[in-house]
Design a protein that fits this description.
The longest helix has 20 residues. The protein has 13 helices and 12 strands. Helices cover 32% and strands 20% of the residues. The radius of gyration is 20 Å and the shape is globular. With 329 residues, it is of the alpha+beta class. The strands form 3 sheets. A 5-stranded antiparallel beta sheet has the order 4-5-8-6-7. It folds into 3 domains: 53 residues, Uridine Diphospho-n-acetylenolpyruvylglucosamine Reductase, domain 2, CATH 3.30.43; 116 residues, 2-Layer Sandwich (Uridine Diphospho-n-acetylenolpyruvylglucosamine Reductase, domain 3); 105 residues, Enolase-like, domain 1 (2-Layer Sandwich). The structure holds flavin-adenine dinucleotide and iron/sulfur cluster. The site of flavin-adenine dinucleotide has 35 residues, from strand 2, helix 2, helix 6, helix 7 and strand 8.
Length: 329
């Protein structure tokens, strides 16, 4: 049986109290929201904090609102609530779809938007028991000095594995971060960095409070497609998100984001030049799919064949385009 390590536990009632707890014990705390990822990771000794700060009692972090035309989603909102919300389903179908494809119903009822955004990266050589990792000599993400995926590499390339994050990027969402200096906002795209050890910009003492989809993003057509072996529960081995403006007959702008490759979701470059002003013809869909294929290079960081995952990139890009614009692409 895998046991939890020893830690002290606190349950702040406000963001202010949570920040005070983090500030009082720098480097010692792990925040836990739904706990669906943090608890298994604690049992695997992937996290070894002295203190757990449970965010579950902070009422102001719950709920979905429309504020000045923007969609505002509290960090403690569950994935079930996000996927069922009428405004999200009507205006950001891809977001609702991605949330509905995370794990299983039980996990979506507990798992939160903030925890999903801050999800630790995953790797075949990392998401294992202490005993398993020790037998291999650990790796540079934790306790070791070598990467088993890219042995000559100096950086961890563990896979970004959140289903919802790529769609947040596709719709131009922003994240609100609270810390000792107050609150700041930045794009979800810039929230992530390409280092699998810690793949976001959060500093010790900071937390995510909300995700905001600006009013300007309303009217986008959105979609999310996920490749995974077992539809009932598995993490993505590939995720493709689309955020597009315009119609099938005339695309105005197009953003395609591919995730579960490396530590940061990849925004496919050069698509506006290909697609803006064009109709979604089979030839254009092929050109977009080929561009994505060229720019995506899955690694052996998740336990499925990397060549096959790469072959699936154009297939899933075409399917996601079809979903966004209605009908096959
Ligand atoms: C069997 C299984 C299958 C899964 N499948 C998927 C899947 O298919 N797709 C997917 O996306 N996820 C999957 N997950 C991961 C996870 O369940 C979800 O991503 C979930 O949304 C995480 O939310 P949580 O509230 O439970 O996060 P927690 O486990 O509480 O926290 C996760 C991380 O986020 C940090 N954190 C939480 N809230 C905040 C905050 N407000 N500010 C700063 N940091 C914060 C925690 O410190 C921790 O590092 C799976 C998990 C399991 C166990
Ligand atoms: S990518 Fe390399 S360093 Fe990162 S978790 Fe995997 S084996 Fe470890």
């Amino acid at each position: 049986m895998l046991t939890l390590p020893h830690f002290t536990w606190s349950r702040p009632a406000t963001v202010h109290e949570a920040l005070a707890e983090l500030a009082a014990h720098p480097g010692e705390c792990l925040m836990v929201a739904g706990g669906t990822d943090a608890v298994p990771n604690l049992k695997h000794r992937l996290h070894e904090p002295r203190r757990i700060v449970s965010l579950g009692g902070i009422a102001e972090l719950r709920g979905i609102r429309i504020e000045d035309g923007a969609l505002v989603v509290g960090a403690l909102t569950t994935l079930s609530a996000l996927s069922a919300h009428p405004h999200v389903r009507e205006h950001f179908a891809g977001v609702a779809q991605a949330a509905s494809l995370v794990a299983s119903p039980q996990i979506r009822n507990m798992g939160t938007v903030g925890g999903n955004l801050c999800l630790d990266t995953r790797c075949t050589y990392y998401n294992q028991t202490f005993f398993w990792r020790e037998a291999l000599g650990f790796c540079l993400k934790k306790d070791g000095v070598r990467c088993h995926v890219v042995p000559q590499g100096k950086r961890c390339v563990a896979a970004h594995s959140s289903d919802v994050a790529p769609v947040w990027i596709a719709v131009g969402a922003e994240v609100e971060i609270a810390g000792p200096e107050g609150r700041r906002r930045q794009s979800v795209d810039d929230f992530f960095v390409g280092d699998g050890v810690h793949n976001n910009v959060l500093q010790s003492g900071e937390m995510v409070t909300r995700v905001i989809v600006p009013e300007a993003s309303h009217g986008l057509s959105t979609a999310y497609r996920k490749l995974r072996p077992r539809a009932a529960i598995d993490f993505p081995m590939l995720g493709v998100a689309v955020g597009a403006r315009g119609t099938r007959e005339r695309i105005e702008s197009l953003r395609v984001v591919v995730s579960a490759l490396g530590a940061k979701p990849r925004v496919i470059g050069g698509l506006d030049a290909l697609a803006a002003g064009q109709a979604l013809s089979p030839a254009l869909a092929d050109a977009i799919a080929v561009a994505a294929h060229k720019q995506c290079h899955p690694l052996i960081n998740v336990p499925y064949d990397a060549d096959w995952r790469r072959d699936m990139v154009p297939v899933f890009v075409r399917r996601a385009l079809g979903d966004a614009f209605g009908g096959a692409a």
